[in-house]
Design goal:
This protein is mostly beta strands. The protein has two domains: 4-266, no CATH class; 280-534, no CATH class. It is built from four helices and 38 strands. A hairpin with a 2-residue loop joins strand 36 and strand 37. The longest helix is centred in the C-terminal third of the chain and has 9 residues, at 459-467. The chain is elongated and about 90 Å long.
């Protein structure tokens, strides 16, 4: 069965077909291979597209079109090396009446591919042809010699100005984009002729400049926010009607489509290794009981509303938390996982010290508060949270490392932290302020990384610091290991790391008026938890 198929790629024209039905019809597939020659373009162009035709020109490198059938699925592949859009190849003989789908999946050999990756785009106009999907369809007739079809663009093209994504020396940085409804991989269905976004990894669009072209997989929401980031900058743009197939997105100026400007702001992040960055939750972890039972299943997890919030008070408590609804002090690994001792809310479980010894680190276990509860944290914004490690706190703060050497044994930041009494919410709160790597607030008058005493930070300065990304760990005190009283609220703070120690003990960060350190107390003590997420 030989068919001459003429295809052209257009932006918005509806599929159109010219079909010639012959008198004799083959009702089923023969199972044999049949040769197809396809004339995809008379002038060498795949299609004219508004930014210019250069990105849609057939080349003399091998180009590919995959063929699928509504009954048979993937049927085969056509190739061309002529540069004039003439394709040929053998496909499995389809059944009479079967709908064929013709897939152009971008430059490269995507034979039988069911997933197409879009994570590494150059951002240049000339390479857009590598990163798009176009599909057409038509019904099979016996001995048909001419088959005209329109190949429709199933992606969207967007044009961005990301020239502001530079470092402190104004050097252009590598930019990537991502979002809740921004997809980095498309799934191809050879039986339906449809594509759907699957993975949501970051899409690299190359070095920052004022004219970036990006192929985007359509989203299904009414509004889609696209986030941009480089090492030191971040920004976003929202498409109010989502990402629609066949659309070209840009800024209209004098009836011309120009790049959309992405405003770049300093990115808030904290280095915890030479090549690893995190963001902190904006409040300590809290569990709120909704029943009188001494268990975790019926309550709710959340982050405290303000960074300085504390829910416990100094004094005696009952052994079953009967007089405590909100809980912010936890034994090491007491994430609510229903596994033996750790699954119980009861505070006075010193036997946890032996039980937890088999878990040398909470990382990637259900005993990590973030691993178990990220999906259920009311104000967790859907992120994957986790407990920071001992080594990460050491790098972040430059403590427990001997003499701090920025860039060698701690992050390369001069002002890393400040022991402070902040004025916020009409009250004073003692704790530790941790400054992000790219911090814009003027710290003149403050002595950072100093273990002398609390520095007084007024309400205006604290508001400005927090707006610039500073984190505050309040001195929430601790629950004594036998669970009968809470002490040191407002004077000292203790925060668990993910790392087990030895002899019933685990590592934590210790905050006092004249010291910031990392120590190893008994794991059944009740300490605060501040979760982080990877960037």
């Amino acid at each position: 069965m030989k068919r001459i198929i003429t295809l052209s790629l257009i932006l918005t024209v509806v599929l159109g077909f010219t079909q010639c039905k012959k008198e004799s019809a083959r009702p089923v597939s023969t199972g044999n291979l049949v040769n197809i020659t396809l004339n995809a373009s008379a002038n060498g162009d795949r299609s004219y597209f508004l930014p210019g035709p250069a990105q849609f020109v057939w080349t003399t490198t091998t180009e590919y079109i995959n063929v699928g059938g509504s009954e048979s699925g993937y049927l085969g592949q056509l190739t061309s090396t002529s540069g004039d859009g003439v394709f040929s190849g053998s496909i499995n003989d389809p059944a009479y009446g079967e709908t064929l789908y013709f897939f152009y999946l971008g430059s490269g050999d995507h034979a039988a591919a069911t997933d197409v990756d879009f994570t590494n785009q150059s951002g240049t106009s000339g390479e857009l042809g590598k990163y798009h999907i176009a599909i057409s369809d038509g019904i099979v007739y016996e001995n048909q010699n001419v088959f005209n079809a329109t190949l429709n663009l199933k992606m969207a093209i967007a044009r961005f100005n990301v020239s502001g994504f530079t470092d402190g020396d104004n050097n252009a940085e590598t930019v990537s984009l991502y979002g809740e409804n921004v997809y980095s991989e498309a799934s191809v269905n050879y039986k339906t002729g449809a594509i759907a976004g699957t993975k949501q990894e970051k899409i690299n669009i190359g070095t920052a400049d004022g004219n970036k072209f990006v192929a985007l997989i359509p989203s299904v929401t009414s509004a889609t926010e696209i986030n941009f980031e480089s090492y030191s900058k971040e920004g976003s743009i929202t498409f109010n009607t989502g990402i629609q197939a066949g659309r070209y997105y840009g800024a209209i100026e004098n009836e011309m489509v120009m790049p959309m400007n992405v405003t770049a702001a300093n990115r808030v992040f904290f280095s915890v290794d030479s090549d690893k960055r995190i963001a902190f939750a904006k409040g300590n972890l809290q569990y709120t009981r909704t029943s009188t039972e001494v268990e975790w299943s019926s309550g709710t997890w959340s982050f405290m509303t303000n960074q300085y919030d504390i829910v416990e008070n100094n004094g005696a408590i009952s052994t079953d938390y009967a007089n405590q609804t909100a809980i912010g002090l936890f034994g090491w690994g007491q994430s609510g996982a229903t596994d033996n001792i750790n699954g119980e809310l009861t505070p006075n479980r010193t036997d946890i010290e032996n039980y937890c010894s088999e878990y040398q680190d909470l990382t990637n276990t259900v005993f990590d508060w973030g691993v178990r509860n990220s999906a259920n944290i009311i104000n967790g914004e859907g992120y994957s949270w986790r407990t920071p490690s001992k080594a990460e706190f050491e790098w972040l703060l430059g403590v427990n490392v001997g003499e701090p050497v920025p860039g060698t044994n701690c992050r390369n930041v001069a002002d890393r932290w400040l022991l402070a009494t902040i004025n916020a919410g009409g009250s004073n709160h003692n704790g530790l302020i941790i400054f992000p790597d790219m911090f814009s607030f003027n710290l003149t008058g403050y002595t950072c990384n100093d273990m002398t005493n609390w520095a007084a930070v007024d309400a205006a300065d604290w508001t400005a610091m927090e707006d610039a990304g500073a984190i505050f760990l309040p001195t929430a005190g601790y629950r004594y290991r036998d669970g009968i009283y809470i002490s040191e609220v407002g004077s000292n703070g203790y925060y668990w790391t993910s790392r087990w120690g030895t002899s019933g003990k685990a590592w934590e960060i210790d905050i006092q008026y004249n010291s910031v350190g990392i120590n190893m107390p008994f794991s059944s003590n009740g300490f605060s938890v501040r979760l982080v997420r990877d960037l």
